[in-house]
Amino acid sequence: MEEVMTVGDASARFRSISSTSSIIPSNVPLLSAFFAFALAQFLKLFTTWYKEKRWDSRRLVASGGMPSSHSATVTALAAAIGLQEGLGGSAFAIALVLACVVMYDASGVRLHAGRQAELLNQIVCELPPEHPVTSVRPLRDSLGHTPLQVLAGSILGCIVAFLMRTSS
After folding, report:
1. Which of 64, 89, 98, 145 would disulfide-bridge 68, Cβ 3.0–4.6 Å?
2. Is residue 139 assigned to a domain?
């Protein structure tokens, strides 16, 4: 038996497809996360200038520094989900746990890995030039964040989520 599609069915299907394709522009939690990340990375230019009195455009794409863009991203996501769907939902619980894990990792494991890399780089610099390790590229030492940088990123994320929610 062949199914006949009515004009109403076609119209409903078109609305369903067009609303699915426009999920990203209307997804406030996703937009909040992306905007918080971009804003935190942009702010690193100014915090680096304030601290080191020099402009460093590499800070736009580098990890580490003030504020934590990882913390801003996951906090904006969790806060936007909480504002949109309430604090009792599964999506908020998942986002909150994710945010806690990311922020703990940024100020714990990654911070200490960066400090170890800094120490190893100093040790390699003190080796004689003929040592085989001296030709190895230095390790990246700007990996993690101090607790203050994580806190600043999380505050930024909350502010972005709140402003995105009130503007939509």
Report:
1. 145
2. no
